[in-house]
UniProtKB/TrEMBL annotation:
Upper classification of the organism: Bacteria, Pseudomonadati, Bacteroidota, Flavobacteriia, Flavobacteriales
MF-aspect GO terms: endonuclease activity; hydrolase activity; metal ion binding
Protein's UniProt keywords contain Membrane: yes
UniProt cross-references to Pfam families, sorted A to Z: Exo_endo_phos (PF03372)
Protein name: Endonuclease
Positions of transmembrane segments: 12-32, 38-61
Record-linked CDD domains: EEP-2 (cd09084)
Keywords: DNA damage, DNA repair, Endonuclease, Hydrolase, Magnesium, Membrane, Metal-binding, Nuclease, Transmembrane, Transmembrane helix
GO BP, one annotated term: DNA repair
Domain Endonuclease/exonuclease/phosphatase: 104-330
Organism this protein belongs to: Pontimicrobium aquaticum
DNA damage found in the keyword field: yes
Superkingdom in the source lineage: Bacteria
Length: 340
């Protein structure tokens, strides 16, 4: 430290703070938001903390300074975190005609309020679905629309609410749905729905989970105008609600007589308490077969993965894909699963 210039000392102090925050974040999956709501907010910043520590390590490496060990050791301790952010291997893509193909997509009401300056969003989404042709689709923020034609899916289950505008969650399937239902969350329009689907001789339970949204504009320029204390309080309350919703969902999930697939928009990252609790012993399809950042939410400044497909640990994930089409504030994801 004594041999460092003033500029490098300042950089190392900043590096130390960022490394400490990342180290602290490793505790987040084990800390209930109800107990430490403020700390839970840190889960949203974990992707940025990983990237910053990687950049600090690279900086010190280029300078040939031993200070690279600080971020290097913190990243090494959290190697599974890095794997949840970025998959260095190429995408797994096994062709198997007996796979179940499942897509998850928060469609943001099919652009009902023109958030995207385009008159063709509904048709573009339909074109994407028709091209990929998944067997099952889980929609969040679904709104029945006259220009949305899903007639190729013979079976569906919708749970909609609202007076003037009906919206909610939906599951569409090419295979018979023999049972369905909803897990209601109090004081919100969010919920979790399920459909028991029969493929060949297998009955599978597909869950579609939409946890409480942040109620924060993700646009960085708008975030700058928010009062920081109000912002953190709002996020903390949201994470408390998410914990309560996750607990209701898990109580229902544990009663399932079938192997399951959980899709959804968790409105939280893979570094959060609710993700860990919901995932349990299931496999994360991105971690099994994806590559790159796996970014599922359109946040400009660093990659955020808050949409998931989790599958029973006896299933093999043969492929996973994140689509790059910007037709919502979320990107669609699709996994192909070998049930055998």
């Amino acid at each position: 430290m004594k041999k460092l210039s003033f500029v490098n000392k300042t950089i190392f102090i900043t590096n130390s703070l960022v490394a400490l925050l990342l180290l602290l974040s490793y505790l987040l999956p084990y800390v209930a938001p109800k107990n430490f709501a403020f700390l839970s907010v840190l889960s949203l910043a974990v992707p940025l903390l990983i990237i910053l520590n990687g950049l600090f390590m690279l900086y010190w490496l280029l300078k040939a300074k031993k200070q690279l060990l600080l971020s290097g050791l913190v990243l090494l301790l959290g190697y599974s975190y890095v794997g949840s952010l970025y998959k260095f291997s190429s995408s797994k893509n096994i062709e198997n005609g007996d796979d179940l193909s499942i897509m998850n997509y928060n469609v943001r009401l099919f652009n009902l309020y023109n958030w995207i300056d385009s008159d063709s969003v509904e048709q573009d989404i339909m074109n994407l679905i028709e091209k990929d042709n998944p067997d099952v689709i889980c929609f969040q923020e679904y709104h029945p629309h006259e220009r949305v034609n899903l007639s190729s899916y013979k079976y569906k289950y919708e749970k909609l609410s609202g007076n003037r505008i009906k919206y909610g969650q939906a599951i569409f399937s090419k295979y018979p749905i023999v049972n369905s239902g909803s897990v209601e969350f109090p004081n919100t329009a969010n919920n979790a729905i399920f459909a028991d689907i029969v493929k060949n001789n297998d009955t599978l339970r597909v869950y579609n989970v939409h946890l409480q949204s942040w109620r924060i504009d993700a646009n960085v320029e708008d975030l700058k105008t928010e009062d920081s204390e109000r912002l953190f309080n709002k996020a903390g309350e949201t994470f408390k609600m998410q914990q309560e919703q996750a607990e209701l969902f898990i109580a229902h999930k544990t009663q399932s007589p079938y192997k399951m697939i959980i899709c959804g928009d968790f409105n939280n990252t893979a570094y959060s308490y609710v993700y860990k609790e919901i995932k349990g012993d299931l496999k994360d399809a991105f971690e099994e077969a994806g590559n790159g950042f796996g970014k599922t939410f359109n946040f400009k400044y660093f990659p955020v993965r808050i949409d998931f497909i989790l599958v029973d640990d006896t299933f093999a994930v043969d492929s996973f894909k994140v689509y790059e089409e910007k037709l919502s504030d979320h990107y669609p994801i699709r996994a192909k699963i070998n049930l055998n």
